[in-house]
Amino acid sequence: MKKSVAVIPSRYESSRLPGKPLLKLGEKTMIELVYEQVSKAKHLDEVIVATDNEEIYEHVKSFGGKVAMTSKEHKSGTDRIAELAKQNNDWEIIVNVQGDEPFIDPKDIDKSLEPFLHDPHLEMLSIYHHFDDFSEINNPNNVKVVTDINDFALYFSRSAIPCARDGIAENYRYKKHLGLYVYRKDTLLNISALAESKLEKIEKLEQLRALENQIKIKMIEVQSKSIGIDTQADYEKALRLIEQVNH
Hints:
The protein is an alpha/beta fold.
């Protein structure tokens, strides 16, 4: 039977926040919270962490999670997941969940999988929510996406896109990209086999490799506003949020 599988790529050597998968948020580590949230999705057959770090590997084992060691040579989470996809013939739909999204809503994962059940031609999908705070819109750590009339991605950028030439983007709500991707297995392996693209290198956004090679990315809106933890400031914000949740 073909499976829908979520893979959580997790590496220790983050340039902006080293060791972040093992940072504590309340009583649990970040990677444990991500694993728990993803495991609540109803449309998944399997959840697995992909890492190149022994400490992360042993930690995931310790809380009963499924984990696999992968090469240290991978430059992106996509490539790390592709290594496992090649080894598993029964994988069909693969969800790439970022290992720094401890507040991800499992309903968003299910919502992201549903289009693949109805459209056999759909190759790749990701998610966004609207945001209006211009300090957030202009923050390069928040990735923006613009879409066509059918909600397929036209471009992703760390810059504020579209750029409002006259200072005001009337009747437009900016779209913040959230780091969750769903692929058909063949699409994932195709993307991983491609060379790093020019725009990908400039923006440091791996999804641009797909767009530059004419792989269409369907975008769907979600209401939840998960926090991706990239910096110390993000971590401190997450600590405050987890404290509120636990009380």
